[in-house]
Specification:
single chain; about 350 residues; alpha+beta; Fructose-1,6-Bisphosphatase, Chain A, domain 1; D-Maltodextrin-Binding Protein, domain 2; 2 domains; seven-stranded mixed sheet; five-stranded mixed sheet; binds 3'-phosphate-adenosine-5'-phosphate sulfate; binds magnesium ion; Inositol_monoP_metal-BS; hydrolase; Inositol_monophosphatase-like; metal-binding
């Protein structure tokens, strides 16, 4: 741990919390066909592992970070668990959480069903511009998780409205490079834990505890040599708009489509040069989908902005209030990326107005 990091204790607690949650997620992903999956009001999926991960991260942080009141802004809520027929899911979550805690051995506690409900409810903080708030996506990329692909346990700390710390546990991401994802014949280990604290840089280590390695974004300055990441799900980002942006830049490589904030981690260590995210009209971005990932990228020397080139503002509550989309790249490519984004959006809007 670098000395002089004012958030060193919080960083250690955050890494421990997401590593514990990753164990639970890995157990469930191996046996996903037998796990409870529900559809939320917005039709997105939620599994026993989303709830279990949220409970373990919240609990572990509460045990290990003592200073001040505890505030957690987390994705999952009690709504679906209050529905008829959810009793069995609640039992499964309780068993899963208790088994993970027992197997891990760090804490001597067993949750009751009431304790489980109350622990999920702990994540309903609204965040905001003052004080400290933990921000958690217990499984980012739940669709990827269900497919057996990429997902991340994404945790960040807001202090006076600014993200000061972020960790991303990516259990299915190769430790050295995304390029080892298929078949992994390189012998690259799987399971990466990215972390960053403000002013102290970004690191990656293995989920089973190899020493952290400093990471930085790639130094490509000619977009022709760049590759770009985007959502796997076309429902989450407009792939036709990103194609047009890439064409304007002269990007030659096909898009690298992976789920979750693993994209931010991969970008931060230079596996690719650009991240493009353009949700369909009307979608409001949530802070837990970007807080952890964005500080990992900025501390690795990159830039993360909205489509107008403005910094992301995490101080407005549970939602990000931003213009159109989110883009990330290195300092060299950002000016030409921003220009291409704005031209492509203008053309799309003009075409839509002719319909
Ligand atoms: N309609 C729509 N538009 C844009 N974004 C949406 C939409 N629906 C969901 N989400 C959010 O996308 C999160 C995962 O998106 P990713 O791009 O990281 O992964 S993916 O490749 O699209 O699966 C995903 O995070 P999780 O719910 O944590 O999995 C959602 O918060
Ligand atoms: Mg979700
Ligand atoms: Mg998410
Ligand atoms: Mg999630």
């Amino acid at each position: 741990m670098a000395s002089g990091n004012p958030y060193a204790a919080e960083l250690a607690a955050a890494k421990k919390a997401v590593t514990l949650a990753a164990k639970l997620c890995q157990t469930v992903q191996q046996d996903i066909m037998h796990s409870g999956v529900q559809a939320k009001a917005d039709k997105s999926p939620v599994t026993v592992a989303d709830y279990g991960s949220q409970i373990l991260v919240g609990f572990s942080l509460k045990m290990d970070v003592s200073s001040g009141p505890f505030s957690l802004v987390a994705e999952e809520a009690l709504d679906e668990l209050r529905k008829d027929g959810a009793e069995e899911i609640l039992e499964d979550i309780t068993d899963l959480v208790n088994e993970t805690i027992f197997d891990d051995g760090s804490y001597n506690i067993s949750f009751t069903k009431e304790g489980i409900l109350s622990a999920i409810d702990d994540g309903k903080s609204e965040g905001g511009p003052s004080g400290r708030h933990w921000v958690l996506d217990p499984i980012d990329g739940t669709k990827g998780f269900l497919r057996g692909d990429q997902y991340a346990i994404a945790l960040a700390l807001l202090d006076e409205g600014k993200v000061v710390l972020g960790v991303l546990a990516c259990p299915n991401l190769p430790l050295s490079s995304i390029n080892n994802i298929n078949g992994n014949s390189s012998g690259d280990k799987v399971g990466a834990l990215f972390s960053a604290t403000i002013g102290c840089g970004a690191q990656v280590e293995s989920l089973d505890g190899s020493p952290p390695q400093k990471i930085s974004v790639c130094s490509i300055d000619n977009p022709v040599n760049a590759s770009f990441f985007e959502s796997y799900e076309s429902a989450h980002s407009m792939h036709d708009l990103t194609r047009s942006i890439a064409e304007k830049l002269g990007v030659q490589a096909p898009p690298v489509r992976i789920d979750s904030q693993a994209k931010y981690g991969a970008l931060a260590r230079g596996d690719g040069a650009i991240y493009l995210r353009f949700p369909h009209k009307g979608y409001r971005e949530k802070i837990w989908d970007h807080a952890g990932g964005s500080i990992v990228v900025t501390e690795a020397g990159g830039i993360v902005t909205d489509a107008a080139g403005k910094d992301l503002d995490f101080s407005k509550g549970r939602f990000l209030d931003l213009d159109t989309g989110i883009i990330a790249t290195n300092k060299e490519l950002m000016p030409s990326l921003l220009k291409a984004v704005q031209e492509a959006i203008k053309e799309t809007n003009q075409a839509a107005s002719l319909l």
